[in-house]
C-alpha cells in the first residue's frame, strides 16, 4: 500500500490515483525497488584455474560468497553472474567467510559442483590457510584439538568449548617479524607520551606484551565455522585484525586465551551485538593509546540517520581496515593427488620493508606433511612453555604439540 501511494508501484509508467485502481488486461505493472548495500573492495576476482567444469578463483577479502543480509549484488555469486552473463548460475562448492580471502571452487554445472562438494564433505581434500597473528608464535608443529561450539548463529560467534564439536587444526610458523626498534636505544614517542595510568592499564592486557607478529600456516583437519580463528584465539595468538576474536571490548584484556570453561557467553554476545552498530568493531591491531585518533577513522557503524526515501537506518562506509582479516585460503589439494590449486602469499604475509623473510611457503614449514603422522603424536609437555602452562592445566583436552 505504501509503495503504491508513494509511486514506487506504477501502471504503464504512471502513478495510480488510488489503491483501488482496476488493472486491465495488457497493463504493465512496475515496482521500483530501493535498496541499501554495503560497499566491498574493488579488487577483482582472480582466476587460478578454469576448465569446462570448474572455475577456481582467488576470492578477495570482504566479499560474501552468497547474497545474505545487507549484501546482495556485492557478492561473489552476483559479481560473477554480472561478469559472465545473467543466464549463468555460479555454483560455489566451498564457502569462505566474508572477511577471508583465497581459493574457492565455483562449478559451471550441477554435476561438477556436486562431485567436488562431495569430496570436501568426505574430507578427502586438504586445505591450507595462512594467517597473520600477534606475537611470536611457537616453534615446531602445534596441533590444537579444542572442540568448537556455536554460541550465537545470528552474530556468527563461536568459542572453544569442551561440549562443542570435535575440531583439530595443525599450525606451523612460517616467519616472525619483530617490531622496529627505536634508533640509538632512545625511547619511542609512544613510550614518552604515555602516562602512568596508561602503563598500568596496559600491564593488565596480556596481548600488550606480545611484540611483533607471525605468519602462520594453518591446516584444518575438520571444518567447523571459524575454526582457525577460534583455535588461534585459544592459543593466545589471535589474528591481529580479527574484529571478533581479537577484540578486547568483546572478550576483555585476556582475549579468552586458553578459555574453554567460562560461563560468560551472554556477556560476550551482548558486547558483540553492539559492534558495527553503536560502536565500531575494532581489533587489537587498531587499538592503541590514541583511541580518539582511531575513532576519527572511517569505520562502519550506524549513524543514527534514516534514509529519506525508505526510512532504512543508515550505516557509515567501512574503512579499508574493515574489508578483510589476515586469513587467506592459500591451497586446496586432492588427497589422491589428482589436483592441487594454490595462490601466492597475500601482500600482508610478505616481509615488511627493510626486513628479510620468506616470500613463498617452504617445504620445512609445510603442515600438510603431518597429516599421515597424526595418529603417532605424543603429548610434549615441554612445549607448553610457549603458551603459559598454567592456563591450560584446567582444560579437558590438552594442547597437542609434535616434537620438532
Characterization of the model:
The chain has 404 residues and is α+β, with helices and mostly antiparallel strands. 18% of the residues lie in helices and 22% in strands. It is built from ten helices and 18 strands. It has helices spanning 2-6, 76-84, 110-121, 189-193, 196-203, 227-234, 248-251, 265-274, 291-296, 389-392, and strands at 9-11, 14-15, 29-31, 46-50, 54-59, 91-92, 101-107, 125-134, 141-144, 148-152, 157-160, 169-177, 213-220, 302-306, 313-315, 327-334, 340-342, 400-402. The strands form four sheets. Strands 4, 5, 6, 7, 8, 9, 12, 13, 16, 17 and 18 form an eleven-stranded mixed sheet that branches. A hairpin with a 4-residue loop joins strand 10 and strand 11. The N and C termini lie far apart (70 Å). The model is unreliable at 182-194, 284-296 and 375-404 (pLDDT under 50).
Number of helical segments?
10
Which blocks of ≥5 consecutive residues have pLDDT under 50? Answer: 182-194, 284-296, 375-404
What is the gyration radius calculated from CA atoms?
A: 24 Å
The structure class reads: alpha+beta
Query: What is the general shape?
Result: globular
Q: In whole angstroms, how far apart are the ends? A: 70 Å
Kindly state the mean pLDDT as a whole number? 80
Biggest sheet features: 11 strands, mixed
> Approximately how much helix is present in the residues?
10-25%
Order of helices and strands: HEEEEEHEEHEEEEEHHEHHHHEEEEHE
Strand content: 15-25%
Number of strands: 18
